[in-house]
Amino acid sequence: MSAPTRSTVLRSATYFPVSNVAITGAYYRDVLGFDCDYSAGDPPDFAIYSRDACVVMLRRVTDDSIVVPNEQQGGTWDLFCWVADLDAMFAELTSHGVEVAYPPTTQPYGMREFAVRDVNGYVLGFGAELTTG
To answer: How far is residue 77 from each of residues 1, 3, 36, 81, 116, measured CA to CA in Å?
Structure first.
């Protein structure tokens, strides 16, 4: 019997439970530079925002206690994006008043990265691989 054909993943999305989709969506649009691809409800109870290949789904929850960023559970990021120009991304986001979790830092695992917090406390990491040469 032959092995099954390997399928290609076309896109992925992070799924964040949030208490207010409209406020969170506005933050992703106005501060983080995302576009709203889809929104449902009035007020919205679900939305999809994207920036290039990074997609975030937002779902309204009525119980704020289930909004628990990974950092509060001993983790680091809730979302991580590799970017083409780390310094440009940092300059753009800080010019929009983003809360910086940590500034651009060279890591021992061959990355230079920084992280920010959204309005719900979710931590978004941005990084670029260090080139050797």
So the answer is: 42, 36, 22, 10, 9
Looking at residue 74, its pLDDT comes to 87
Count Cα neighbours of 72 within 13 Å in the Cβ-side half-sphere: 9
Q: 107: which DSSP letter?
A: -
Convert 51-78 to b/e letters by CB count within 10 Å (16 or more is b).
Answer: eeebbbbbebeeeeeebebebeeeeebb
Q: State the pTM of this model.
A: 0.91
Query: Residue 79: pLDDT above 90?
Result: yes
Distance of CA 82 to the CA centre of its chain: 11
What domain range is 106 assigned to?
14-62+70-129
Return the SS3 of 90: helix
Parallel, antiparallel, or unpaired: how do β-strands 79-82 and 111-117 relate?
Answer: unpaired
User: What pLDDT shows up at residue 32?
Assistant: 98
Peptide bond connecting 104 to the previous residue in cis, omega within 30 degrees of 0: no
User: What's the CATH code of the domain at 21?
Assistant: 3.10.180.10
Specify if 56 maps to a domain.
yes
In a domain, 5, yes or no: no
